[in-house]
Structure formats: C-alpha cells, structure tokens
Amino acid sequence: MPLRSFRHIGQIGAASALCALVMGGQSLAQSPLGNGDGSNTDNQRLLPGVYPAAPMDPLPVDFPGLREPYDPFFNIDWSVALRGAYTKTNDGEQFDVVLAPSASFEHTGSRSQIKFDASAEVDQPVDGRIDVSALRLDLSTSYALDSATTLDANADLSISRDRPDTPGLANGITQAPQTIVGSVDGGVTRQFGRFNVGVTGEVTRSLYGNTTYADGSVADNSEQDLWTVDGGLRLGFQATPIFEIFTQANLGREMFDHPSSVLLLKPDATNSSIKAGVAGKWNEVLSAEASVGLGLRRFDAASLGEVKSHLYDARLVFSPDPTWRFTAGLTTTVAPPGPDNGGLTKVEYAANADVNYTVNSWLELRALAAWNTSTFDGSSDTETGYGYGVGADYSVNAHTALTADYGYEHADKTNDSPEDSHRVTVGVTVKR
Q: Are 329 and 349 in contact (CB under 8 A)?
C-alpha cells in the first residue's frame, strides 16, 4: 500500500480518537463516577456503609411475571374427622360413629391479629338418633396501640351435651341436659417500665336444658340459667428478664333468671378473689406460672351466708426440643353447682398433664392424665374422678392421617355407685 494511504488512515484514526476522548470526557463529567478529586475515593458508591445501587429492571414494574402471589387476608385451615368408637361402662357396651369437622380463619397484621375457630361433634350411636354433642365457636382479637399498650377481645359460644354413659353423670339419666354458654370479654394491658397493668371485663350467659330419666320423667333446669359479670385487675413486676411477680384481684356478680325450687329465692351472689404468684419464661423451652389466693362468694340473701375457698392455680409448658412437648396444670373453680347437683356452691380442684412426642414426619404419639375433686357447700355431696389415655396419629400423606386413641375414666360420686369407662376410638382425618 502507498505511504500516502497509510498517512490518510492515520489522520482519520487520530481524528476519531480525539472525538471519542472529548465525548467520553463530557460523559464522565456528567456521570456520578466522575465527581470528586479524580481518585474516585470520595464517590458515594465507594463510601463506607453505602451499598451499590441495584441494577435497573429492564421490564416495567407492572409486568405480570414479576409479581409474587399476594398473601390472602385470612389464612384458612380446615379438617374433617370420621371416627368409630367402642365404649364399655358399668351399664354395658356401645358403638358410636362420630363426625368432627373443624375450621379456622386467621389474619395477622402489623399491629392486629384476628382468629376464628369453629368445631363440632356429631354423634350417632348404632341404632340410635343423630345428636350434635358439641359445637364451639371462638373469636379472638388483639391490637397493639403502641409498643407498650395492647387491646384484647374475645367472644366464645359452646353448646354441649354429656353422653348418658359419661362417668360422674347421675344414675338413671338417659339424656343429659344441653348446656349453652356464651361469653364476651375484653381487656387492656399497659407496660410502665418494669411494671405492667392489665384490666379485664367479661360477661357470660349460661343456659341449661331439660334432663330426661329412665323412668320417663323430665326435670326442668331453667332455674340454673344465669348471667355472670366479672372484672379483674392484674399488676405485675418484672423482677428479672425471666421472672415476673404478680398479684390479681377479681370482682363479679351472678344473677339467676328464676328462684330456686328448693330455696324459694334466687341465689344471686357476689364473687371476689385475690391471689399472688410468680411467672417465668425461658425462651421457648420452658414457661411456668403458679399462684395462690382466697375466694369469697357472698349471697344476697343473708340466710344463705357466704362461701370461702382457697385458690390454687399453676401451669407448666416444657419443650426441650421440637419433638417433645410437656404441659401440666392445676386449676380451682368456684361456681354454682349446676343441674343434678346439690348444695349452693361447687368448689372444684382439677389437675391435668399431657405429653406429645413427634417420632418423625409421619408418626406422632400422645398421652394424658387428669384428676379432679369437688365439694358442694350446703351439701355433704362430694365428687372425685381421674383418668388417663394414649393416642397416635399416622400421616398417610400431607392431607390424610389415621388416628387411634384409648381412654379410661373413673368417677366416684356421693349417692351413686363408682363408674368406670373404657373407650377405644379409631378413625381417619382429612385436612387442608
């Protein structure tokens, strides 16, 4: 190639390089990378604690393939259990078919939580009529006003009827009374440094159906229908990050619809109680609470006097690892005696213990034990009982499980012979 041609090409290349340098300098001056003293060490993208900006998305933000599915407002869960049961008592044997559906709806927000649970048990003895032995509806809500104040509210409704062969039920009863209990309660909890204060209020309505006896007679239990109003105040002090010392006081009223057929007056009463205790929590492994106190049930009618009682309450939850869970509790209940019982006031102490063990992803085992004893003020009647049981769940797949349970109950009640019950239940549960 002639030398003149090489010179021509060189002149063109030099001109192109000069243009590129000028344009690059202008772009560098306009770019954030060009700011600073030329060393780039004072550029914002290189400053400590400042991360590089994320790369731009070449697709529009509303492109359908970029969005993840949104979370539903309610998390829905449901299950349906079909079980067959064999029961042997002092009165004989019985076979039952039980259908137990349940459902739950839960919403968790940044400050609020709402949960609704519904369950039922439909029982049909072989060659017998279908009976809804239990129906439960529970609504619970919680809302955090701020980091130190929480509001809670709950509404519950339960409809139940004991089986005629239930231990502790009076002899000769062919159909136990239906019990309907509805309640609404609410409360507010506020923290003041290491102190926390809680105020609660509750209204309960209790209704009792008729009792049918083997001789064909029917007893009207409407005189046991009542309203219960209760208010409570709890003061706690966080002594350490683990232990809390607390005291709690309650004041309530019991108002009956009708006078007693025996007393010929309404046994309305005022209930008051005070107790003190300690609570502790060690992460998610162990939580425990225990308290003692005194209760006083004073009747409006001076002739009925008053009932004093000692209150003992405790609860323990222990989970050393995700496969084991132990729970135990002790409760004291002071309430009207209810249908088919004598006296003016029932004072009951009850204890229970449960163990759950997850063997693996497809097998869970459980065991439980319970004990109770009751006295009736104004009557010499007493009532004691205990029981235990074991069970297992075998997961066929993620939505189907086979269940098997055995339970034993013993009850000893004044004026009734001791009763024992053995119950074996097997079934299948289909869940969401």
A: no
